[in-house]
């Protein structure tokens, strides 16, 4: 077996299950899960109808490259959403449909890393982070290099503190904007800075933007990496790729539908890799994806529902728990008055609410784990459940203060 498999840590939810198994929650309180980022809003009915109408496509093999109609729809969406130069996206060269961003992010690292350089290649990643970034690095034969996302830098890595030696060894930089778990959004200035660094040190920027459509201000949606390219006239999107998904945007995690877009010279060999990888999206899913990417009304409704939940939960928690509204996304990244693992375990034991300890999605570097003494709370449950959870969390925190 590949010895790098031994370097993979248990997934955060395995650790969480072990933590919860040591206590017994109250049976009289219904369980509320705020631990996993699985959208609970209703999936669009017209997407379900499209799936139903195209089940005869089960008899056809899909192509890895994707239906021309889907690629064209994605290209049009990217151009509208991120104000790209008209015609700069060639759907057949700049877009590849994928089975959700998770599989694409993981497989992209396998194709992007050059093991022959002899200089121990690095994949630079935020910390805390989506654990796929770390696993992708190990299985690609690279080392993850973690950049802490701290409150004093608005949860954006301090890229100025990264040495030239690290950038020179970097072959792939993972970004996550809006961030998981912090909700922090990269601004254009920072993205321009990173593009310049990619040019100077010859690395690829891979921006995970699967939360980009969950934001609060309709007039100021989060900036994307391709948008930053367009702002500086970089219409070939050189060294830049983005990952998008319908899971959060359209409440379709079970559809497993997303795409990668950007530098055509990078996507061409990645497409070749994928033809061997055997990961073509089913045709009926592609047709349903066309319907989803073509409609914004359901996405606006989705944002409205999250706004209502953030407003209600933050009003209830008030000053009892140190937490604030993120830039975007659907997570709260709350400070805990006790250790994050104790907080999560005792909250489950007393209130039957599950949250994710921050240390489980961070790594300790130079004695610091940026996730310690924080918990991630996903406001994915219905509004009434989120309100009930907030009230029970408030009650729990008050018992800690009294103690």
From TrEMBL:
The keyword Transmembrane does not apply. Keywords: Aminotransferase, Transferase. Signal peptide: none annotated. GO terms for biological process: lysine biosynthetic process via diaminopimelate. The keyword Transferase applies. Its cofactor is pyridoxal 5'-phosphate. InterPro entries: Aminotransferase_I/II_large, DapC_beta/gammaproteobac, LL-DAP_aminotransferase, PyrdxlP-dep_Trfase, PyrdxlP-dep_Trfase_major, PyrdxlP-dep_Trfase_small. Pfam families: Aminotran_1_2 (PF00155). GO terms for molecular function: pyridoxal phosphate binding; succinyldiaminopimelate transaminase activity. It comes from the Bacteria. CDD domains: AAT_like (cd00609). Residues 32-382 form the Aminotransferase class I/classII large domain. NCBIfam families: DapC_gpp. This is Succinyldiaminopimelate transaminase. It comes from Oceanicoccus sagamiensis.
């Amino acid at each position: 077996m590949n010895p790098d498999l031994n370097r993979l840590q248990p997934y955060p939810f395995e650790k969480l299950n072990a933590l919860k198994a040591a206590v017994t929650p109250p049976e009289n309180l219904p369980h509320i899960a705020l631990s996993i980022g699985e959208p609970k809003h209703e999936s669009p009915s017209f997407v379900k109808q499209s799936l139903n109408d195209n089940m005869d496509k089960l008899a056809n093999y899909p192509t890895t490259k994707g239906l021309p109609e889907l690629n064209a729809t994605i290209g049009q969406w990217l151009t509208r959403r991120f104000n790209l130069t008209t015609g700069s996206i060639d759907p057949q060269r700049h877009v590849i449909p994928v089975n959700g961003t998770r599989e694409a992010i993981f497989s992209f690292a396998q194709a992007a890393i050059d093991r022959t350089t002899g200089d121990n290649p690095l994949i630079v990643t935020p910390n805390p982070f989506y654990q796929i970034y770390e696993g992708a690095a190990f299985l690609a034969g690279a080392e993850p290099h973690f950049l802490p996302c701290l409150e004093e830098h608005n949860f954006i890595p301090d890229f100025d503190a990264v040495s030239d030696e690290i950038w020179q060894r970097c072959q792939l930089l993972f970004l996550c904007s809006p961030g998981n778990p912090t909700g922090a959004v990269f601004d254009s200035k920072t993205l321009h800075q990173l593009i310049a660094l990619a040019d100077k040190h010859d690395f690829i920027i891979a921006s995970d933007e699967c939360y980009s459509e969950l934001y609060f201000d309709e007039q100021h949606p989060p900036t994307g990496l391709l948008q930053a390219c367009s702002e500086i006239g970089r219409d070939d999107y050189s060294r830049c790729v983005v990952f998008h998904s319908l899971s959060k945007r359209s409440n379709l995690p079970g559809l497993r539908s997303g795409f990668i877009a950007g530098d055509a010279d990078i996507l061409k060999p990645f497409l070749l890799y994928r033809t061997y990888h055997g990961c073509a999206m089913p045709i009926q899913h592609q047709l349903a994806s066309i319907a989803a990417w073509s409609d914004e009304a359901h996405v606006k409704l989705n944002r409205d529902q999250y706004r209502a939940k953030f407003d209600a939960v933050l009003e209830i928690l008030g000053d009892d728990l140190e937490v604030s509204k993120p830039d975007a996304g659907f997570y709260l990244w709350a400070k805990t008055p006790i250790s994050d693992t104790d907080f999560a375990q005792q909250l489950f034991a007393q209130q039957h609410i599950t949250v994710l300890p921050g240390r489980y999605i961070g790594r300790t570097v130079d004695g610091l784990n940026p996730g310690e003494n924080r918990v991630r709370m996903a406001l994915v449950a219905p509004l009434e459940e989120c309100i009930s959870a907030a009230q029970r969390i408030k009650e729990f925190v008050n018992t800690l203060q009294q103690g």
